[in-house]
Amino acid sequence: MKSWALYGITRKLTEPFKKLEENTKKMDKIFSKSLNIYPIDVGNNGDLNFEMAALATPQYNIHRFGIFFADSPRHADVLLILGRCSEKMIEPLKETVNQLPEPFSIIIVEDGTDFGISARNLDLPNVIAYYDKKLEAGEILSVLLNITGDRK
Amino acid sequence: MRLLGVFEKDSKELLILQDRNQLSLENINDVKEDFANYTMLKNRDKHIGSKAVKGNGVFNFRYGPVTGGVGDAGVFNIYTYGERILSVDIDPGYKKRNIEILIKNTALHQAVNWSENVCSNFAFSHSCAFLRAVEKAGNFRSDEVTQRIRIIGIELERIYNHLHVISRLSKGASQNVLASHLEGLFEEALRTNNLFSNSRFLKHTNGLFIDKNNFKKLDEVALKVKNVEEKFRELYEHSLASWNFIDRLYKTAMLDQKKALEIGVTGPTLRAAGRREDLRVYEKFYDNFKIITKDKGDVLARMQVRAEETMLSCDMVINQIDKIKKMRQNHNKIDESSISGFGMGYCESPSGLVLYSVNMNKGIVQDVYISTPSVFGFKAFADSFVGYILTDFSFSFDSFGINFADCAR
Amino acid sequence: MIYTIIGLYILGSFTGFIGRKISYSMAIIASVFSFIAGFEAKFTGNTLSAVFSFLPGITVGINIDSLSGLFLMIAAISWTAVSIFSLDFGNNYRKRMAVFLNLSMLGMFLILTAYDALTFLSGWEIMTIASYFLITEHEGAYKEAFQFLAFSELSTIGLILAFVGLNASDGSFALTKIHSNSVVFLVFASLAFIIKMGIVPFHTWLKEAHSKAPSNASALLSAPVTLMGVYGLVRVINITGYTHVWGLLAIIFGSISAFWGAMEAAAAKGLKVLPAYSTVENNGMILAALGLSAVAYSFSTKSTLYEFAFLTAVVLSITHTIAKTLLFLSIGQAKEQLHAENIDNVRGIHKSVGKIPALGILVSGLSFSAFPALLGYVAEWMLLESIFQSYQFSSILDRVVSSTGGVLLSLAMGFASFSMIKLIGYSALGYHHEKKAEPMPTFFMNTAELFLIIMIFGISFFASYLFLGLGYSKFVIGALGVPQGWLLASAKPVFGVISPAFFVLVITALSVVPFFVYFRNKSTTKKVTSWNGGLALKEEEYFTANAFSFTIEHILRFIYMTKEKVNKNRSYVVVSDVFESFYKYIVTFIKKISYSISIFVMNGKVYFYILYILIMFILIFVVFGEMFA
After folding, report:
1. Residue B80 distance to chain C (closest CA, Å)
2. In 3D, which of B297, B348, B319, B286 has the Cα closest to residue B218?
3. CA atoms of B335 and B132, how far apart (whole Å)
4. Is the pLDDT of residue C295 over 60?
5. What is the CATH number of the domain that holds B152?
6. Where are the alpha helices (DSSP H) in chain A?
7. Which of A43-47, B328-332, C142-146, C383-387 comes out lowest in average pLDDT?
């Protein structure tokens, strides 16, 4: 029986990634080296949460692009708002935005359902991308790669 | 006898009861038995768990609604005087979307869509339970192929959910290699779903009649599932040899059978506490099905049940695909607008029983009551977590495979 | 000078019946004079003396020699601060508090300056009784005051026996010279003084009394009153000379006491219970340092360790007296203005009460956790250096005792930091409770606190001058780029060095750039409340001080005897001090016995009383007749 370390290095799960061109506003170029994202669930039906889990899988290996999940909005460059806002989540969402360090950007991804309130109508600052349909993990990665412009 | 739901209709309080595969709707005055989970079910949208604890130095360690750890909108009010958990009170209201109200007066296909949107990771189970209730209401049964395809859907859903839960557990225990590989399998499973149904979460597939011809890539699906099973088996056996991993899960968040039955929790949680109960045994087209149980009732037992179920589900998917390929399907179109009446249907979702009670009138949904496994799961979590310490949070919570979307509807 | 001081204190206590302010002002003046007197005696070498013959062969009076001078100076700093503080604080209490404050200081003055045992004893009793009344000034503190009195009288009995022993050995009551090696004197005097210092297992009164008394009295009790114990011990050593076994016992008792005090402080939740246990810890350290000095002396006088260890005890005493006075005064002010007893209920003193009391708690607390640039840092460095140097000892017993003691002392320092961080974090700093402090005049309170804060910084910065002034020029050197006279060394030849002054300078220089950047970017810094999952914290969601220490209480549950009481709607953790339970047991036992005896003896029959008196009379005659025959 091999140790976990040996088990790990003898298998490669990462896949090459071809990003799709997305029409988004761009962030400062400095974020192309390191981008910390903080996903916030504001009341989606769950699949965007699971896509986030999928985004963290080795197939996408987002760390190679310098993208990381932040543990707190205070460490985040990008706030990913997932879903449409339930009534009780409006205040926590606004507080989360308030906690983001400058400069920050907000991406809104909805799940294609029509319950709740669209976060677009909440007058949030620095919204650089908005999708009213559900995105899959690969598509979200594409968006993240697009907002920071070209990267090596 | 298990109480699965409480609701009011025409100022009468009705109870949904389940005994093996028999579901019944009873007026509260006609039921003699007392159910320990009655109050919890009545307040399931406001509070799940125990009351607040007071005392010197006791405070509410509120976790949520926005957290990096759970990533789901909901609040855990954890009462503690330090590390020790004294009481957990969960507020699922942050995710309340009132789907039971939205679903009213909608046509059947729209209603199926709503039921899938209750909770995406149990989407297929929800739509199955809903459609089965509709079938009961209309007093007919779907054809065999449709039912077998539903089994594939349900089992595929089980596979990716279980993989997700186990990968979360291993991540919580800092088993990073294991976690990464399981996450990889999880993504693989999602892709398999996509291959099967053109949706990573098995949506927009279920119906009263599912056309076999829509599924062109069943062979590839079977191959992928086989691959997932092989890899998972290897990883799972490997993981059981890791002391560090097992030690974190063993005897954590214990839930004994008596308590589990009182709460009314079903699914792997109940089976991990030693109860041989899985409603799939009553279904006609499950071949070679066996119930997997463990008796410790801790996080490890729940993980073992899920792991063994994953492998079993893989076998069943491959088996069903084999059978479907050989079958012929008659196009007996069902007239949706003729369905009227009341019916209840259930489905054994990855985390327990999903139940729909539906009133139909000429193909339009009149009202619906949804009983979801997460409501019971949250209560089970809240009760089993008491007495442990905060560090056990992630294991305890993840091991139940529950989420707020399912709970709050 | 001496008469002036005594006169002022007596005048002060009388004027207490007329007006508080005059009385406290008298105390301030007398305390300042005391400091001057001490300074004169210590540094000019003049011994101030007023001695006269009381009975044939017995000389009584006042005599301020170098040693008295030193301790008089230390105590006078505390007295001055407490008196200034009381100008404002005393308004909330009755006039008689001023009387007893003056008397208590007079008692201590007499102790510190006593030429002979009789004066010493009268000072001791004046101090004890005045302190007793000071404690009772707090409503409902009779039980605690009585406990204080009981232990104090126990030490008085010890002292009387000790002085009898002293007199028996060479017929003198004088305290000023080396002249006796009476074991009786050594044992009983040491016992009396360690009771006063609150050394474990005689510490339970201290916690009770100090936490219940009014805060100025707590400061007085905790700092100068326990300093009397230290002074007493040093006097004892001065009379009998160093004894090896005494040293070993002192290390054992001292280190256990330090550990126990620090550990109990870590679990303490009462606002003044925590500093009270910290007193037990600090006095333990002082005792251990004295013990180390004694052991080192018996080992070899060639090594400088015995001198350094003694100096350590002195610096520890200075630190403790000043910082503890400051801590009690600052906390007292907050407690008085917020009407709260627990650490949890005074969060955010810096906002609700004021910046200066908060700074007072911060500085004294950090000093007790040996934070660099503060006096406590120098003192604890010295203690550790003394322990490290015990490697020189040749005897296995000495080594085992000193190293075990060293382990306990180091643990005590760690626990002390833990408890002080808790105290600072939950009282001085921390989130504001939105509690309003009761308005009261604070000018003099703040003045007293500021005075002590400056002392803590100042003495640390000029620690080398303190060393030189105390006559230990061999421990002040210059090396490693630090000019001559600014580097403290722990031995000669050099063992370890430190320069508090240069530390401050270097840190200040290094923090110029960060501060510059901070102030430049201050306008662009985004300020938000703490992140709490997207919702503002409610009152019941704040992390409590109890929760802060629960981990330690759980890990060390076999020492704390931690019991988690988890009830349906009310849960809490109970931590107990074993010694307290022991005393409680004794008290119930004695109560029972005395009750049965009283029923037997005092049964209301006259002839029984007469019989009793008769028997006692005969017994006394027989017993004492035998003894003196």
Report:
1. 8
2. B319
3. 16
4. yes
5. 1.10.645.10
6. 4-9, 47-55, 90-99, 137-147
7. B328-332
Query: Considering its fold, how many domains does chain B have in total?
Result: 1
Which residues in C lie closer than 8 A to residue B82 (C-beta atoms)? 546-551, 553-554, 573
- Whether B56 and C534 lie within 8 Å, measured CB to CB: no
Model pLDDT, residue C206:
80
* C609 CB neighbour count, 10 Å cutoff: 13
Q: Looking at residue C255, what is its pLDDT? A: 92
Q: In C, which residues are within 8 Å of B86 by CB distance?
A: 566, 571
Of chain C, the percentage scoring pLDDT greater than 90 comes to 8
Segment B18-51, tens digit of pLDDT: 888 888 888 877 777 778 888 887 788 888 888 8
Q: For residue B231, tell me if it sits in a domain.
A: yes
The sign of the dihedral angle between the CA atoms of A19, A24, A26, A27 is: negative
- Tell me how far apart the alpha carbons of residues B127 and B115 are, in angstroms, rounded to a whole number: 6
Q: What is the ipTM of this complex?
A: 0.88
Cis peptide before C441 (omega within 30 of 0): no
Is residue C417 classed as helix, strand or coil in its secondary structure?
helix
Spatial CA neighbour of B172 closest among B324, B50, B300: B300
Domain boundaries, given as residue ranges, for chain A: 22-147
Q: How far is CA C173 from the centre of its chain?
A: 27
Q: How far is CA C30 from CA C33, C103, C462, C513, in A?
A: 5, 12, 26, 47
d(CA C396, CA C289): 19
Query: In the Cβ-directed half-sphere of C97, how many Cα atoms lie within 13 Å?
Result: 27
pLDDT at B260: 86
- CA C277 from chain centre, in angstroms, equals 10
Distance CA C221, CA C198 (A): 11
Q: Which amino acid is at A91?
A: E
Tell whether the model's pLDDT for residue C430 goes beyond 80: no
pLDDT band at C498 (very low <50, low <70, confident <90, very high): confident
Pairwise CA distance, residues C447 & C143, whole Å: 33
Alpha carbons C84 and C86: distance in angstroms, whole number: 5
Asked if residue C447 has pLDDT above 70, the reply is yes
Is the CB of residue B238 less than 8 Å away from at least one CB of chain C? no
CATH code of the domain occupying A22-147: 3.40.50.12280
What is the rounded distance in angstroms from the CA atom of residue C613 to the CA atom of residue C145? 31
Domain interval for residue B155: 144-194+223-328
Residue B82: inside a domain: no
B27 part of a folded domain: no
If one counts every other C-beta atom within 10 angstroms of the C-beta of residue B24, the result is: 12
Three-point CA angle C231, C236, C238, nearest 5° = 95
CA distance A63 to chain C (A): 26
Q: What does the pLDDT read at residue C555?
A: 85
Residue type, C165: G
**Looking at the DSSP assignment, which residues form a beta bridge with residue C114?**
C62
Other Cβ atoms closer than 10 A to C134:
29
DSSP states along B77-93: EEEESSSBEEEEEEEGG
In this complex, the residue of B65, B102, B178 whose CB is nearest that of residue A89 is B65
